[in-house]
Amino acid sequence: MIQKGQRQWALVTGATSGIGRQLALTLAGHGFNVVPVGRRPEALEEVAELIRRQGVEALAIRQDLTDPAAAASIASQLAAAGITIDFLANDAGFGSQGAFLDADLTRLQQMVDLNVKAVMALTYVIGRSMRDRGQGRILNISSVTGLLPGPYMAVYHATKAFVESFSEALAQELAGTGVTVTSYCPGPTATGFHDNAGIDNSRLGALYRPADAAAVARQAYRAAMQGRTVRYGGAGTALTAFGVRLAPRRLVGRIMAAVNVRRGGRGQR
After folding, report:
1. d(CA 237, CA 243)
2. Cα angle at 259 between 253 and 263, to 5 degrees?
3. What is the C-alpha to C-alpha distance for residues 182 and 15, in angstroms, rounded to an integer?
4. What are the residues whose beta carbons fall under 8 Å from the beta carbon of 212, sequence distance 6 or more?
5. Is residue 269 pLDDT above 50, yes or no?
């Protein structure tokens, strides 16, 4: 835990709900001042107040991360406040369940903007500052889905594959600089994600019991503080990660098609 008077700052995207919210509170509980980033002003101020109740500071930043200028805007606000980020947690993201060619193209593009482009841009802007100072931790919340082809969630799986590959590569580039990069890959987690993506109406929602978001956040925090490059969320997720390396990709794709398809349909919107 960071001692009082030596508080570092952490920035958490997607901090108004789910894993991101729990990460923000976990970081505050370990002595970090926190910059929660999100779109919903009331929820953002609520989490900021919960952070302050733990005896640390909070600077809430309302930002739509699908905006191409989001990373630059956040960096500008941090500079104006005199804040240097020592721990970056990229959690914001969303998914959508359904057949790719039947989906709304604008929403799919927004998914790529948030799940991929925002992660890359914010990591670039804040990561350069960390490298120049010779210290920092970057935690990217990926998913076990990043290891799997995902029929009926094709774009979401692909975005998480980017996060996983990007994080591992960057971890190697920054080895020895004092900056660590951790890709944390949870399995199904009890957040609003499943409802928003429509997964609860798929076989995936029926097969898996979601993990607790607070427990997931604590495990992700520990992995980042230990400097782990990749950490899988739970034994089942780790087993899946190992199994897909051995199974034929075509077979994995068929299994995931059966898991992701809506019950009683073929993944329609």
Report:
1. 10
2. 135
3. 18
4. 189, 190
5. no
Please name the amino acid found at residue 68: P
Catalytic residue at 156?
yes
For strand 9-13 and strand 33-38, is the pairing parallel, antiparallel, or unpaired? parallel
Task: Give the single-character DSSP code of 117.
Answer: I
Contact (Cβ atoms closer than 8 angstroms) between residue 184 and residue 223: yes
Tally Cβ neighbours within 10 Å of residue 140.
Answer: 29
Distance, CA of 109 to CA of 157 (rounded, Å): 14
Q: Please report which helix (H) or strand (E) contains residue 86, including its range.
A: strand 85-90
Query: What is the per-residue pLDDT for 26?
Result: 98
Contact 115, 64 (CB under 8 A): no
**9-13 vs 85-90, strand pairing mode:** parallel
Burial class (CB in 10 A: 0-12, 13-18, 19+), 12: buried
CA 88 to chain centre: 11
Q: Which of 124, 152, 156, 232 is catalytic?
A: 156
Domains contained in the chain, CATH given: 9-260 (3.40.50.720)
Q: What tokens does 70 get?
A: 């989001």
Token pair, residue 139, equals: 């935690």
Residue 78, φ and ψ in degrees, nearest 5: -65, -45
Q: Give the model confidence (pLDDT) of 194-249 as tens digits.
A: 445 445 544 454 555 677 899 999 999 999 999 999 988 765 666 665 656 655 66
Q: How far apart are CA 138 and CA 126, in angstroms?
A: 9
State pTM to two decimals.
Answer: 0.84
| Neighbour count for residue 242 (Cβ, 10 Å) | 11
